[in-house]
Design goal:
Elements: H1 3-26, H2 32-38, H3 43-71, H4 73-92, H5 97-125, H6 131-158, H7 164-167, H8 169-186, H9 198-218, H10 224-247, H11 255-258, H12 264-292, H13 297-303, H14 306-321, H15 327-347, H16 354-381, H17 388-416, H18 421-450
Helix pairs in contact: 1-4, 1-5, 1-6, 1-8, 2-3, 3-4, 3-5, 3-9, 3-17, 4-5, 4-8, 5-6, 5-17, 6-14, 6-16, 9-10, 9-17, 12-13, 12-16, 12-17, 12-18, 14-16, 15-16, 15-18, 17-18
C-alpha cells in the first residue's frame, strides 16, 4: 500500500466517522413530532431518543479514546463503525418508542468510538505534511452534520419513509468499515499496554450525566433549581475527576502531562467558547427570522445555512493554508472574526434585509473555519503520540458539553425575556460576544508573557 493510498483511506475513515456521528446528532430532531405521533407517545418520551444518543456519546467518548491508545485507534474505529451501523439498522426497524430509545443508545456508543478516534487517526497515522489539510477536511465533516441532518431528515419525512433517516447511515458505515479493515491489515499502530481506569470512567460518567441533565432542565422555569443542583454536582464531579486523574498511575487523561504544555488549557478554553457560541449561532437565528421578521420556515431553512456554509468552505481554505506552524495564529484569527460577527449581529436592525443577517452568520462560519481545524491541531500537538486518542476525545467531549450548555443557556435567556423576544436575542448575541472577548484577552495576555523581553 502506497503512502498516498494510506492517507486517503485514513481520511475516509476519520471523515466518515465524524460526519456520521455529527449527522445523527441532529437528523432525528426534525422527526420528533412525527415519531411522537407514529408511536403514540408524549413529547418528553420521544425526546429521550435524542437524550439517549447524546448521553451515551458524551459518557463513553473519553474512555473509548483512552482505550484506542491501548489497543489501537483503527480497531476502536472499526468496532465503532460496526456498532453504529448495527444501531442504525435497529433504529430503522423499531416498532415502539422504547426500542427506538435503546437502539439510539447503541448508536451513541458507536458514535463515541468514531468521534474519539477521528482526529487521532489523522495525527498518528497520516504523513506529517498532510495532517493540516486533513484536519481542515475533518472540520468540513463537522460542519456538514448540522447542514445535512435536518435537510435529509426533512426530505425523508416528506417522502413518508422515516426509517431511511437511520438506514441511510448503513452503506456509509459499511464503506468506512471496509476502508478501516484494509488499513488494519496494512498499518502497524503503536499501542501501550495499560490498565483501564474504571474508577476514572465512573467519575467521568457521573460528571457528564449531571451536567447534561442540568442543562436539559435549565430552560424550564419550574425546574430551574433542580437544574442548578445538577450542574453544580457536575462541576464538583469535574473537580473530583481532575484530582483523581492527577494522582492516578493510569489516568484517562494525563493531566500531569499538561504541565509540559500548559497552553493546552487555553486551547481547551477556546474549544469551550467555540462550542458555546456555535450553539447560540444555530439556536437563535430561527427565532429571529420566523418570529421577528415573519419569514416562512422554508426560507428560514435556507437563510440559516450561512454559518455552516462558511464553516465548510473556510475549513478547507484554512487547512490548505496552514502548514502546521500557524495553529495559534489561525485560532486567534478565527476568534477575532467570530467576535466581529457577533458585533455585527448586535448592530443589525429588524428593518434591514434578512440577507444581511445571513451574511453575519456566514462571517461566523468563516471564523469557525479558521478556528476549528487549527484549534484541534494545537490540542493534539500538546499531547504525546501515545495519548492522541485520549487528547482527541477530550477535545470532542469538551466541545459537546459546551454545545449543550450554549443551547441551554440560550434557551433560558429567551424564556426569561419573554414576551420581549428581540431583547432575548440581543442578550444572547451580547453574551456570546463577551465570552469570545474574554478568551481573546486571555490569549493575548498569555502570549505576551511568553515573549522574551
Amino acid at each position: 500500500m502506497t503512502n498516498q493510498v494510506k492517507n486517503r483511506l485514513i481520511l475516509i475513515v476519520a471523515g466518515m466517522g465524524m460526519l456520521l456521528s455529527t449527522l445523527d446528532t441532529g437528523i432525528i430532531n426534525v422527526a420528533l413530532p412525527f415519531l411522537q405521533h407514529e408511536f403514540h407517545t408524549s413529547t418528553s418520551t420521544t425526546a429521550l431518543s435524542v437524550v439517549g444518543y447524546t448521553t451515551s456519546l458524551a459518557v463513553l467518548i473519553l474512555p473509548l479514546g483512552y482505550l484506542s491508545d491501548r489497543i489501537g485507534k483503527l480497531k476502536v474505529s472499526f468496532i465503532g463503525l460496526l456498532i453504529f451501523g448495527l444501531g442504525s439498522i435497529l433504529c430503522g426497524i423499531a416498532t415502539n418508542i422504547l426500542s427506538l430509545i435503546v437502539f439510539r443508545i447503541i448508536q451513541g456508543i458507536g458514535a463515541a468510538a468514531l468521534q474519539s478516534t477521528s482526529a487521532a487517526l489523522i495525527t498518528t497515522l497520516m504523513d506529517s505534511d498532510q495532517i493540516s489539510s486533513a484536519l481542515g477536511i475533518l472540520g468540513i465533516m463537522i460542519g456538514l452534520g448540522p447542514i445535512l441532518g435536518p435537510s435529509i431528515g426533512g426530505f425523508f419525512l416528506a417522502m413518508n419513509v422515516w426509517r431511511l433517516i437511520f438506514w441511510i447511515n448503513v452503506p456509509f458505515a459499511i464503506l468506512g468499515a471496509i476502508c478501516n479493515q484494509l488499513l488494519i491489515n496494512q498499518v502497524n499502530e503503536n499501542s501501550e499496554n495499560r490498565r483501564f481506569d474504571f474508577l476514572g470512567s465512573i467519575i467521568n460518567a457521573f460528571m457528564i450525566i449531571f451536567l447534561l441533565t442540568g442543562f436539559s432542565l435549565l430552560s424550564q422555569k419550574t425546574n430551574f433549581r433542580s437544574a442548578l443542583i445538577f450542574i453544580i454536582g457536575g462541576v464538583l464531579c469535574g473537580f473530583l475527576f481532575y484530582i483523581f486523574e492527577s494522582k492516578s498511575t493510569h489516568p484517562l487523561i494525563n493531566f500531569r502531562e499538561f504541565s509540559k504544555s500548559p497552553k493546552i488549557w487555553l486551547f481547551l478554553a477556546q474549544t469551550i467558547i467555540f462550542g458555546f457560541t456555535s450553539a447560540v449561532i444555530f439556536l437563535i437565528p430561527p427565532f429571529l427570522f420566523e418570529k421577528i421578521l415573519h419569514i416562512g420556515v422554508g426560507t428560514t431553512g435556507l437563510l440559516v445555512l450561512g454559518a455552516p456554509a462558511g464553516l465548510v468552505i473556510f475549513s478547507r481554505i484554512s487547512g490548505n493554508r496552514n502548514d502546521g506552524t500557524k495553529n495559534q495564529k489561525f485560532s486567534l484569527l478565527g476568534l477575532l472574526i467570530i467576535s466581529i460577527a457577533f458585533t455585527s449581529l448586535l448592530l443589525v436592525r429588524t428593518n434591514w434585509p434578512a440577507i444581511i443577517i445571513t451574511g453575519c452568520l456566514f462571517l461566523f462560519g468563516i471564523g469557525g473555519g479558521y478556528f476549528q481545524p487549527a484549534n484541534i491541531a494545537a490540542i493534539m500537538q500538546s499531547g504525546s503520540l501515545n495519548n492522541q486518542g485520549a487528547i482527541g476525545s477530550l477535545q470532542r467531549m469538551t466541545q459537546n458539553i459546551a454545545i449543550a450548555s450554549g443551547t441551554a443557556i440560550g434557551s433560558t435567556l429567551i424564556n426569561l425575556t419573554t414576551p420581549n423576544l428581540a431583547l432575548g436575542i440581543q442578550v444572547n448575541w451580547l453574551l456570546a460576544l463577551l465570552v469570545v472577548a474574554i478568551v481573546l484577552i486571555a490569549d493575548v495576555v498569555i502570549n505576551s508573557r511568553d515573549k522574551p523581553l
